[in-house]
Structure formats: C-alpha cells, structure tokens
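Postdoc handover notes: sequence design on the structure in folder B. Input tokens:
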C-alpha cells in the first residue's frame, strides 16, 4: 500500500516567494488498485510521482510503503527503496540501442549487484509477464512503440516492487496501443497486488483504472 499524508513540496519562486508544487496532498492506494492521476500540465502530477518514488524529498509530510517510512530515510535507504520497493515507468522507455530486450532488463539487475544467472531468469520472467518473451533477443529498432513500452514496464517489474509509478505511458502511442498498455498495467496491478499510480492525459484510458484522482494547483480531489 502507498500512503501519502499531508505532502507539501515548495520551490523558491523569485526573491521572496515560493511555488507550491504539492499542497497538503493526501492519497492512499491499496494493494491491487490502479489509480489514474489526471490534471492539466503544471498541476503537480510529476512532482507527486517524484516524491512518492523517493526521487525528491518533500518539504513536509510523509510517504509510506506498506507502513514503512520513505520520507526521512537515508540516501542509501532511498536508493534501496527505488530499487526494490518501487517500479518506475517513465514516459520514454530510454532503451539502449545496442542491447536486446533481455539485456536491457539484465543491465538494471547488474547495477543492483544481482548475479548474472539470477538476473537472466528474472528478466525472462518479467518479459513473459508483459507478453514479450518472443522478442527477448530483439533490439529497440526492431520493436514497435508499444513493444518498447512493454519492455519499459518489464524493467520496472524486475525488483518485484510493491508500488508502480507510471508517467504518461501512452503519450507516444496510437489509440489501440494505448489501450493495450493500459489494460496490461491494470492486469499486472491486480495479478501482482501492486499499488499503482498512472499519470495520464488520455481520458479514454481512465475507465480502465479502479479510480481516478484529479489534480490541480498541487491539490488532489476525487469525484
């Protein structure tokens, strides 16, 4: 479960002012639930993901994952949280052109110190989970946009996370591929008991989520 309580994130704005990227945000995402986070550009959606994923420390408030505190953790502990507890899926897959789909996932495990034999098995399992097992030996230029995004999602599954944070996964995809990716995220959320937050501008994909949370001016609301 992901819990955000009274989160505030403030940046300096000019000589004397501050900009509130997050303004007293409260949000709870239970295991096995996918939340669609929608709102205009600049509303704070990406800031929320960055704080929830231990990439940015909030000005105040708390983040907990399965009742374990994220805020206040040491730099080393935050690194461990990002590696083991949180799966981050960015808008662009950022795949290395010289590596196969399998090697992309193995590299992420190698950076965390996992043995090559173990990482290969885990990578094949993650690719199978997103329907990409037959494309394990293909490089990015041999994959469609939707397939590259599936590899991106598989990479986020490598640490067997409790929380999945996904930033605009369908921004560069057509309508059919977008629907497939959103359906995949919903299935993985339910099958693996993930607490998933998906930032999206695609209102057609919102019904796939278990609930929708709207964000504006750093605040969240549910309707």
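Designed sequence:
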């Amino acid at each position: 479960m992901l819990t955000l309580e009274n989160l505030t994130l403030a940046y300096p704005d000019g000589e004397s002012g501050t900009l509130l990227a997050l303004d007293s945000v409260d949000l709870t995402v239970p295991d096995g639930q996918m939340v669609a986070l929608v709102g205009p550009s600049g509303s704070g959606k990406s800031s929320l993901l960055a704080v929830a994923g231990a990439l940015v420390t909030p000005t105040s408030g708390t983040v907990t994952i399965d009742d374990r505190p994220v805020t206040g953790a040491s730099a080393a502990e935050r690194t461990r949280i990002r590696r083991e507890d949180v799966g981050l899926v960015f808008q662009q897959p950022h795949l290395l052109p010289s590596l196969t789909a399998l090697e992309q996932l193995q590299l992420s495990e190698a950076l965390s110190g996992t043995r090559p034999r173990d990482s290969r098995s885990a990578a094949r399992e993650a690719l199978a989970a997103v329907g990409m097992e037959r494309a394990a030996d293909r490089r990015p230029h041999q994959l469609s946009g939707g397939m590259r995004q599936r590899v991106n999602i598989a990479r986020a599954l490598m640490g067997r996370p409790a929380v999945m944070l996904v930033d605009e996964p369908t921004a560069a995809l057509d309508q059919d591929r977008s629907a497939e990716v959103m359906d995949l995220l919903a299935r993985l959320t339910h099958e693996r008991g993930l607490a998933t937050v998906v930032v999206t501008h695609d209102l057609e994909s919102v019904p796939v989520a278990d609930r929708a949370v709207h964000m504006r001016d750093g605040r969240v609301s549910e309707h």
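Context for whoever picks this up: The chain is about 35% helix and 30% strand. Don't rerun without checking with the PI first.
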